[in-house]
């Protein structure tokens, strides 16, 4: 695929609707230092506009199974999973600059060679990947966009799921988690409707041991919002 090709899995209209709020926020001195020093080695800019092809073997400097983390937040979960799973590479995509900087700090502190961090629209990044190249896609606690008029911005919807699934290898896993009950049901309905995904658990799954319990999730549980996981495999 060239930078000017259009991925048929994604209708043109869906590319103009953001599934995220662009966010910067204030950064600590530690985060500012990590971003300035480590971005050239571990960072990947996702440009607006035409899709740009991404060579994962070139990005990581090796050929290994790749997990795509969409919305890595402050990076704690991504860093923990990558540290426990050194035989796979983790590509985290985030738009929150302090979160990106914090993940870079964690990468350096943990001497993690299997993490890269992309800044920009995850769907644009995915469109630049070859089909069948990902071992797993993680979408943990995406913005629920609770108002009905904003549901079109949700990342888990048919066209986006079709794109994500097309980049999974045979046997690859799409793993979603949310603490928003209505969105959980909508996710399940959308994922069940995809003709090339199979529910690995026959419904909501227990939290897998490989997904770390984050501060965000603890707050959700304390507030009485049950957290659910959905795991779907491309057969």
Automatic annotation (TrEMBL):
<dbReference type="InterPro" id="IPR003358">
    <property type="entry name" value="tRNA_(Gua-N-7)_MeTrfase_Trmb"/>
</dbReference>
<keyword id="KW-0808">Transferase</keyword>
<feature type="binding site">
    <location>
        <position position="69"/>
    </location>
    <ligand>
        <name>S-adenosyl-L-methionine</name>
    </ligand>
</feature>
<feature type="binding site">
    <location>
        <position position="143"/>
    </location>
    <ligand>
        <name>S-adenosyl-L-methionine</name>
    </ligand>
</feature>
<feature type="binding site">
    <location>
        <position position="94"/>
    </location>
    <ligand>
        <name>S-adenosyl-L-methionine</name>
    </ligand>
</feature>
<protein>
    <recommendedName>
        <fullName>tRNA (guanine-N(7)-)-methyltransferase</fullName>
        <ecNumber>2.1.1.33</ecNumber>
    </recommendedName>
</protein>
<dbReference type="Pfam" id="PF02390">
    <property type="entry name" value="Methyltransf_4"/>
</dbReference>
<keyword id="KW-0949">S-adenosyl-L-methionine</keyword>
<dbReference type="GO" id="GO:0008176">
    <property type="term" value="F:tRNA (guanine(46)-N7)-methyltransferase activity"/>
</dbReference>
<comment type="pathway">
    <text>tRNA modification; N(7)-methylguanine-tRNA biosynthesis.</text>
</comment>
<feature type="binding site">
    <location>
        <position position="179"/>
    </location>
    <ligand>
        <name>substrate</name>
    </ligand>
</feature>
<keyword id="KW-0489">Methyltransferase</keyword>
<feature type="binding site">
    <location>
        <position position="147"/>
    </location>
    <ligand>
        <name>substrate</name>
    </ligand>
</feature>
<keyword id="KW-0819">tRNA processing</keyword>
<dbReference type="InterPro" id="IPR029063">
    <property type="entry name" value="SAM-dependent_MTases_sf"/>
</dbReference>
<dbReference type="InterPro" id="IPR055361">
    <property type="entry name" value="tRNA_methyltr_TrmB_bact"/>
</dbReference>
<feature type="binding site">
    <location>
        <position position="121"/>
    </location>
    <ligand>
        <name>S-adenosyl-L-methionine</name>
    </ligand>
</feature>
<feature type="binding site">
    <location>
        <begin position="214"/>
        <end position="217"/>
    </location>
    <ligand>
        <name>substrate</name>
    </ligand>
</feature>
<comment type="similarity">
    <text>Belongs to the class I-like SAM-binding methyltransferase superfamily. TrmB family.</text>
</comment>
<comment type="function">
    <text>Catalyzes the formation of N(7)-methylguanine at position 46 (m7G46) in tRNA.</text>
</comment>
<feature type="region of interest" description="Disordered">
    <location>
        <begin position="1"/>
        <end position="31"/>
    </location>
</feature>
């Amino acid at each position: 695929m060239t930078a000017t090709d259009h991925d048929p899995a994604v209708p043109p209209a869906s590319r103009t609707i953001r599934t995220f709020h662009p966010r910067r926020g204030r950064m600590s001195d530690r985060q500012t230092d990590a971003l300035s020093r480590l971005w050239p080695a571990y960072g990947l800019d996702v440009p607006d506009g035409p899709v740009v092809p991404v060579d994962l073997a070139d990005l990581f400097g090796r050929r290994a199974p790749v997990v795509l983390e969409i919305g890595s937040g402050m990076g704690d979960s991504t860093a923990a999973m990558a540290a426990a799973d050194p035989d796979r590479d983790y590509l985290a995509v985030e738009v929150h600059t302090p979160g990106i900087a914090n993940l870079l700090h964690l990468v350096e502190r943990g001497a993690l060679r299997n993490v890269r961090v992309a800044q920009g629209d995850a769907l644009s990044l995915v469109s630049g990947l070859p089909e069948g190249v990902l071992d797993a896609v993680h979408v943990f606690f995406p913005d629920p966009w609770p108002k009905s008029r904003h549901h079109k911005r949700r990342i888990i919807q048919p066209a986006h799921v079709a794109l994500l699934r097309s980049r999974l290898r045979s046997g690859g896993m799409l793993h979603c988690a949310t603490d928003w009950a209505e969105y959980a049901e909508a996710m399940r309905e959308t994922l069940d409707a995809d003709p090339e995904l199979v529910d690995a658990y026959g419904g909501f799954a227990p939290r897998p041991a490989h997904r770390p319990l984050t501060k965000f999730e603890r707050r959700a549980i304390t507030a009485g919002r049950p957290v659910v996981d959905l795991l779907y495999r491309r057969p």
